Amino acid sequence: MQAVQAGVVPEKPTVLLVEDEVLIRLMVSDELRSRGIQVLEASNADEAMTVLQSALPVHVLFTDIRMPGRTDGLGLARFAREHYPHLKVVIASSHLAADAARDLADAFIPKPFDLPAIVAKIEQLLAGLSDEQQP
């Protein structure tokens, strides 16, 4: 797991980015950070669940669907919806899974990624958070 340091609590809006492909994860996280968004990174759903269950505040979960591990991005999104209803969820995939993601996500992003579209969608979701929805 990257970008999580012991004792450091993010003060900026925070996105948990879950992507098993390292280069894609770095590309998206760099773009978000360049826009002033705090990014926590996980390479699979198990790591992401650990972050969600920690004391670190997370405002948006951005997850790919297909990942190695015990569960995929849809399972992670179900977990997030059940346990963290305040959390905004963005699901990404190169497969036509928008229908499967519709009930679980606030947004669906197709791959290959359009970085400006990702940033715009996440900024839109963060802007829509009220103080009551903050973790």
Features:
135 residues; alpha/beta; 5-stranded parallel sheet; 5 helices; disordered N terminus; disordered C terminus
How does this model look, in words?
The protein is an alpha/beta fold and 135 residues long. It has one domain (14-128): Response regulator (Rossmann fold, 3-Layer(aba) Sandwich), CATH 3.40.50. 37% of the residues lie in helices and 19% in strands. It has 5 helices and 5 strands; from the N terminus they run E-H-E-H-E-H-E-H-E-H. It has helices at 22-34, 45-53, 73-83, 98-101, 115-127; strands at 14-18, 38-42, 60-64, 88-93, 107-110. Helix 4 links the parallel strand 4 and strand 5. Helix 2 (45-53) packs parallel to helix 3 (73-83). It is globular. The protein starts with 13 loop residues before the first strand and ends in an 8-residue tail after the last helix.
